[in-house]
Fold:
Amino acid sequence: MPCSRSSTGKAPQRRVNTVGERSTTAGTEVVQPRLAATVILLRDGDAGPEVFMVRRHMDSDFVGGAYVFPGGRVDSDDSQAEEFCVGLGSDEASRKLQIESGGLALFVAAIRECFEEAGILLAYDQDGDLLNSRHSELAATERARLNAGEVSFLDIVRRNGWKLATDRMHYWAHWITPEGQPKRYDTRFFLTSTPRSQDAVHDDLELTHSAWISPQEALAKAQRKEWTIIFPTLRNLMTLLDFASTEEAEEAGRRRGEVETVQPRILRAPGGFQAVLPGDPGYEDASPSAQALGAQAR
Structure:
């Protein structure tokens, strides 16, 4: 039985995402994707793994009302956190993400967003222990100040002598929003488990509801149209279906090899357009966007 929290919520106040830079390709304007990081946060339930999902505020400037994993865009401070990271340096992080540089900022962004949006801080205390119930009151106070814009994430980590548990973050997936969308994100998905005795609670600013739920039930809710779940989230939920425990999922994360970048393309289909993924029939010949497909036809 999934447990959940809900509230009336308020209009998002914590941060406003801005549209990325634009360029022009084949006569169409293309928004360049912003770097972002998302956390697939797991715990063991009575019937197997459960994942923490949050509903974005209806007035959100991106996928309002949809259920997603905690996450958001990379901030400039995220690239300044190497001294606070455990078990992962900048070069190794970039190698894992298959990029030349800047990889560690994505791991840090995932941990920061998880704290901001879900209240779970994946970090070690000064004794090297994962933060737990002993730190709950302090962490909740620090989170409130962070979301109010009174302090930065790195200020909190530095002042308390905490270290970020980047060694517990498993690179899981990489999705890029298709061209033609007004907001585009270049998003890395990370998988991890919730430390014992930390309670996940949505921020009540950008988010209005949250739930621990099995991947099977989340997909069923989407099928019954009870929840709006966007395509990348649906596909990542599907990757969790075969795991009997969080340890099994994390072990798969540790063994995961090269992660394929997924950027949907558009095919003209009877009655409209159809999104196709790498490996689908027609992907190589498909257009990067519906707008570009229309431009080609003119």
Summary: Residues 1-27, 291-298 have pLDDT under 50 and may be disordered.
